[in-house]
Specification:
It holds the Pfam family YjbR. Keywords: DNA-binding. It comes from Butyricicoccus intestinisimiae. GO terms for molecular function: DNA binding. By secondary structure, the protein is an alpha+beta fold. The protein has a single domain, classed as Aspartate Aminotransferase, domain 1 (Alpha-Beta Complex). The chain is built from three helices and six strands; from the N terminus they run H-E-E-E-E-H-E-E-H. A six-stranded antiparallel β-sheet has the order 1-2-3-4-6-5.
């Protein structure tokens, strides 16, 4: 899944708003719940070096919220990293370069969407 496919999947699957909150980083997209405005995904292009990958070029990634019990085991998979610029306890960074199967990305997006939605009282 590439970044364009990710955006299309999110728009077709979830009731969400797309936000570009940083003037300095106009390509960083935040996907928010419409009702509570909480983020469930952050897509961006970052230097590979930020993920401890060699090279000076950039990589498209998405950050998603995840159950903290699963986070360490997910880091063992190809294309999944400790969260860039987010809590590494609750968030992960997923490479959008084809190294992570689409079904896995969709499952992790679903988990993030559920983890950040309004809780019933």
């Amino acid at each position: 899944m590439n970044r364009k496919e990710l955006e299309q999947y999110i728009q077709e699957t979830y009731v969400a708003q797309i936000d570009y909150p940083w003037v300095k980083y106009p390509s960083h997209e935040v996907f928010r719940h419409e009702n509570n405005k909480k983020w469930f995904a952050l897509a961006m292009d970052i230097p590979k070096s930020k993920l401890s990958i060699s090279g000076n070029d950039t990589m498209s990634v998405v950050n998603v919220k995840c159950d903290k019990i699963l986070v360490p085991s997910l880091w063992e998979r190809d294309g999944i990293f400790p969260a860039y610029h987010m809590s590494k306890e609750h968030w992960i960074t997923i490479a959008l370069d084809g190294s992570v199967p689409n079904d896995t990305i969709k499952m992790l997006l679903d988990m993030s969407f559920e983890a950040t939605k309004n809780k019933r009282k």
